[in-house]
Amino acid sequence: MEETFIYRNPNAAIEDRIKDLLSRMTLQEKLAQMTQIERTVASPSAIKDLAIGSVLNAGGSAPCDKAVSSDWADMIDNFQKLALESRLGIPIIYGLDAVHGNNNVYGATIFPHNVNLGATRDADLAYRIGAATALEVRASGAHYTFAPCVAVCRDPRWGRCYECYSEATEIVRKMTSIVSGLQGDPPKGHPNGYPFLKGRKNVIACAKHFVGDGGTHKGINEGNTISSYEDLERIHMAPYLDCISQGVCTVMASYSSWNGRQLHADRFLLTEILKDKLGFKGFVISDWEGIDRLCKPQGSDFRFCILAAVKAGVDMVMVPFKYEKYLEDLTYLVESKEIPLSRIDDAVERILRVKFVAGLFEHPYTDRSLLDKVGCKLHRDLAREAVRKSLVLLKNGKDPRYPFLPLDRKAKKVLVAGIHADNLGYQCGGWTITWDGLGGRITVGTTILDAIKEVVGDNTQVIYEEFPSHETLAREDIDFAIVAAGEAPYAEFTGDNSVLNIPLNGADVISAVADRIPTLVILVSGRPLVLEPWLLDKMDALVAAFLPGSEGEGVTDVLFGDFEFEGLLPVTWFKSVNQLPMTAGQNSYDPLFPLGYGLKTNKEKHVIS
Ligand code: GLC
């Protein structure tokens, strides 16, 4: 009778399965489980012979151009087949950044970014978006998303402000409901901190970046957060308690430092606080080349940085390319007893716990029945709802007695202008198809211009000019103009910006149009931008759309009055960058528009001035 290994028995207790499997693993197999590599180096020998624990793709690293969900599923299932052929047949976890829908996949639903969701304050919406995203991630064959980012963005000069729900900890805490949407609701009595995953329609989530990534000095990406421990805990750590109580499976260490202590090497925060005090029992993953970043400041050698990170409490290292060197050094460190085997066993137990909880041993392959969920109407309608609820009305009429919005869909002639009016990539922002985003028709979706054309009457002429000509601006027969301006996409350090003016000549277009025609401005940006008084005065109305994603109709639903504005600023709208950092609750708080600001239209008095 062939011995039935306990770890292969789905009815055995998870902790028994972990213990049984761990007892069968060689040191090499254990260290390989602590290794996450990029798809482009995930060779058959790495996966099958070394038994690497996890594979990921960088933003923009795809199986082919315009890769649809089935292309991804084919690639990932091929990796998985190799993993199951390894000596112990431990399945891989495949991870990717699905941070506003499965933004890697061509044709997937692109939800608004986190800053938009923060403007809704709607925890149930976040939950539903998490559930929809989980379906579209599993349909691609991936098991794991590096989301949600629960950074509390205290300075909009940071290039990742749009990945944050808010500057206010309480709003971020509320939006962590997305974890249960992604992973499923843990049952009553579920042990705090124990990872949870409901089933094949759910994904392993990742609360990131632990801790204080949104509080760095001047918002410098991967910079230094200078604060007392009490403030670090009160402002930046609180959302992790909510994630841990929902059974979040993984936590990603931050590139940033706390009072000069790099998080990737900080045992006090990664182990004594996160694991011991908060009771987190999933695994801690490094950030991309987090070990290399550890070495950079002091120029320390790679082996020393591995030692520092693993001893601090990093369980899985997102290497992602030089995994042979990583494994060689890690092996040396364990064999020389610089890293105790107990630390390795703890890390591997945590990784195996997540794999067993996720049911990967029972269901290692893609459930292809989910393919029709990708970009489906239900999800696009959900994204459209999120867009509607996230728009913030900042100005409505030069004279409050005469609101400018809602717009008249039966107007005779409408001018649409600005480079964000018909640019799907711009309205999606970073982390869309590529790492730092692109302009143009990068995926399936509806631009703001598409939506305007759909919503206006048959007798309405829509004139579209990115940069309107003098002739157009000289016309006397245009009822109103809509100018969409803002930022081009960016990600991480490419978005760090200490000036925060409206880029790409947006202010010039706004000014030229608003001088001649009653004008609504839609600002498409990852964060507040400087609005000079002279420019704001010229606008008849102003809407902050932030980064709405693929469903542009959510914008016109509200502009033309089918729905009321609900959005409230999730971040302070400063007057000048010289005021920064400036967040609600601090002394000398003198914003242009405060945290929580947001107007509603008043239909009774709707007259176009
Ligand atoms: C990046 C980001 C992190 C992301 C990871 C994998 O550098 O810091 O948020 O999940 O690498 O793409």
From TrEMBL:
Q: Which residues form the Glycoside hydrolase family 3 C-terminal domain?
A: 391-600
Among its keywords, does the record have Hydrolase?
yes
User: Can you give the residue ranges of the Glycoside hydrolase family 3 N-terminal domain?
Assistant: 26-354
Family matches, as PROSITE patterns: GLYCOSYL_HYDROL_F3
Q: Entry's InterPro entries?
A: Cellulose_Degrad_GH3 (IPR051915), GH (IPR017853), Glyco_hydro_3_AS (IPR019800), Glyco_hydro_3_C (IPR002772), Glyco_hydro_3_C_sf (IPR036881), Glyco_hydro_3_N (IPR001764), Glyco_hydro_3_N_sf (IPR036962)
Keyword annotations for this protein, in alphabetical order, are:
Glycosidase, Hydrolase
Q: Give the matching Gene3D superfamilies.
A: Glycoside hydrolase family 3 C-terminal domain, Glycoside hydrolase, family 3, N-terminal domain
Keyword Hydrolase among record annotations: yes
A Gene Ontology biological process noted in the UniProt record is:
glucan catabolic process
Which is one Pfam family of this protein? Glyco_hydro_3
Organism superkingdom: Eukaryota
User: What family name appears in the similarity comment?
Assistant: Belongs to the glycosyl hydrolase 3 family.
Protein known as: Beta-glucosidase
Organism listed in the record? Chenopodium quinoa (Quinoa)
Taxonomic path:
Eukaryota, Viridiplantae, Streptophyta, Embryophyta, Tracheophyta
